[in-house]
Amino acid sequence: MSWIQIKLDTTPDRSSELEDLLLECGACAVTLQDGSDQPLYEPDLGTTPLWDNLRLIGLFTADADMEEVIEQLNQSAAGSFSAHRVEIVEDKDWEREWMEHFHPMQFGKRLWVCPSWKEVPDENAVNLMLDPGLAFGTGTHPTTALCLKWLDAQDMNGKQVIDYGCGSGILGIASLLLGAKHVLGVDTDPQALEATLDNAGRNNIDTSNIKICYPRETPEILADIMVANILAGPLISLAETIANLTKPEGKLALSGILEEQTDDVTAAYTPWFDMEPAVVEDGWVRLSGIRKASI
Ligand SMILES: C[S@@+](CC[C@H](N)C(=O)[O-])C[C@H]1O[C@@H](n2cnc3c(N)ncnc32)[C@H](O)[C@@H]1O
């Protein structure tokens, strides 16, 4: 079955009026897209900011009368959109289409992250089996990749790891597969905690080696290795908490930091950690450091 979509260029103040109108005209779905490649970082809690130049896409079944839809839009909302384009969308096997984008990826020397539907490229490597899900963390984002490469380069044998902001659990599970003894995954999002346990199970991790909790429930565990891929704002607020959860001389890796935020995050951690030079990938930064023995 084919579909028809209409794309409207508009501004945030007109978007809900147009969205309602498209639905009234029979759209099965309306999607909001960035019309000018404008990143939106770290929105304030409870806010849903929109891009300055917005593209609304209304999806209609193939039998929709698009001339009538356009006439209706022009009658009811002339001036609310600057341009429109009508396109036919060929139906596809959407699940397969999406799966085609995920391939096994190597991080550092030993570690691979492999989706379950692809063949493992190297049976002798450390293979983390992971499928994309609701929680963040597949390895495709540079911040996750930076942390995975760092973990791969550490001596993980017998180490206690804390994965602060665990998302899918990718960093903690990688640590266990690389030889860590135990991981504590911490997250504010219940879906992330569930995904972490689920993904650990898929990788045959012994349940006694992994524990998950919300930040307010953090047990009295000190990390030999602390890894936190969140965002600059929360990382700065969490500096003392993260320091208090890290053993003297324990190792730290932080990511989720934009290049221009490097100095602020470094300054927040310097009271407790000897910080090392930043590593940058695609505009994102990884910071690392060693917990000071005493402060
Ligand atoms: C960018 S994702 C990282 C996921 C995964 N660790 C990775 O590297 O791909 C950040 C995660 O941190 C969690 N998070 C955000 N703020 C947090 C906070 N204050 N304390 C704990 N977790 C937090 C989010 O729910 C999200 O799952």
Automatic annotation (TrEMBL):
<feature type="binding site">
    <location>
        <position position="229"/>
    </location>
    <ligand>
        <name>S-adenosyl-L-methionine</name>
    </ligand>
</feature>
<protein>
    <recommendedName>
        <fullName>Ribosomal protein L11 methyltransferase</fullName>
        <ecNumber>2.1.1.-</ecNumber>
    </recommendedName>
</protein>
<dbReference type="InterPro" id="IPR004498">
    <property type="entry name" value="Ribosomal_PrmA_MeTrfase"/>
</dbReference>
<keyword id="KW-0949">S-adenosyl-L-methionine</keyword>
<dbReference type="GO" id="GO:0008168">
    <property type="term" value="F:methyltransferase activity"/>
</dbReference>
<keyword id="KW-0489">Methyltransferase</keyword>
<dbReference type="Pfam" id="PF06325">
    <property type="entry name" value="PrmA"/>
</dbReference>
<feature type="binding site">
    <location>
        <position position="144"/>
    </location>
    <ligand>
        <name>S-adenosyl-L-methionine</name>
    </ligand>
</feature>
<keyword id="KW-0687">Ribonucleoprotein</keyword>
<dbReference type="GO" id="GO:0005840">
    <property type="term" value="C:ribosome"/>
</dbReference>
<comment type="function">
    <text>Methylates ribosomal protein L11.</text>
</comment>
<keyword id="KW-0808">Transferase</keyword>
<dbReference type="GO" id="GO:0032259">
    <property type="term" value="P:methylation"/>
</dbReference>
<feature type="binding site">
    <location>
        <position position="165"/>
    </location>
    <ligand>
        <name>S-adenosyl-L-methionine</name>
    </ligand>
</feature>
<dbReference type="InterPro" id="IPR029063">
    <property type="entry name" value="SAM-dependent_MTases_sf"/>
</dbReference>
<keyword id="KW-0689">Ribosomal protein</keyword>
<dbReference type="InterPro" id="IPR050078">
    <property type="entry name" value="Ribosomal_L11_MeTrfase_PrmA"/>
</dbReference>
<feature type="binding site">
    <location>
        <position position="187"/>
    </location>
    <ligand>
        <name>S-adenosyl-L-methionine</name>
    </ligand>
</feature>
<comment type="similarity">
    <text>Belongs to the methyltransferase superfamily. PrmA family.</text>
</comment>
<keyword id="KW-0963">Cytoplasm</keyword>
